[in-house]
Amino acid sequence: MKVTTKVRRWVIFSIVVPLLPMIFAGILKLGQGSGLEYQSLLGGTELYILSVTVLASTKNDLDNSEADFSSFRVYNFLTETLIVMMIIISMMFAAVYIHEHVQKIGIQQSFTADAGMLLGVLSTLNCIALQVTLFTAEKQRTRSRS
């Protein structure tokens, strides 16, 4: 299977499909005639759950791979960034969850939506780069076997 097919499949099932509820909510809001503000769609915990899930699935793929990453210099940097992003997003998720469900702690919804969207996009780009690196390393591994 080609690398692009694997990455495309990973993007569809790890990123696009989990975003469908937010996309449908946006379509419904537009259909109702109310304004579409991304803070109302992304101000909750859904984006953080999606980001942590994408990061965790990428980390799992990397840990279970038998590929040799010694020729990929950027791999260590991306992996360390992935772990740091996972920690920061998990902390933001905890703060937003506590604010929404336990007690009001004075978090601005627009700031958390902005920060969550930025971190979500950055972590997704990081995961895509790591998945491409993983598939390239696996492809080189299969070539060296034959």
Structure characteristics:
single chain, 5 helices, 146 residues, 80% helix, elongated
Q: Would you count the extended β strands for me?
A: 0
Low-confidence stretches: none
> Assembly state here?
single chain
**Number of helices, counting only DSSP H or I runs of 4 residues or more:** 5
The CA-CA distance between the termini, in Å, is: 16 Å
The average pLDDT is: 78
The ordered H/E elements are HHHHH
> Which radius of gyration do the C-alpha atoms yield?
18 Å
Q: Which structural category fits the helices and strands?
A: mainly alpha
Helical fraction: over 70%
**How big a fraction of the residues is strand?**
under 5%
Number of structural units classed as domains? 1
General shape: elongated
Q: Main beta sheet, described? A: none
What does the model show?
- Helices cover 80% and strands 0% of the residues.
- It has 146 residues and is mainly alpha-helical.
- The model has no long low-confidence stretch (mean pLDDT 78).
- It is elongated.
Question: What is the element layout, followed by pairings?
Answer:
Layout (H helix, E strand, L loop, with lengths): L2 H29 L6 H5 L3 H18 L10 H28 L7 H37 L1
Helix pairs in contact: 1-3, 1-5, 3-4, 3-5, 4-5
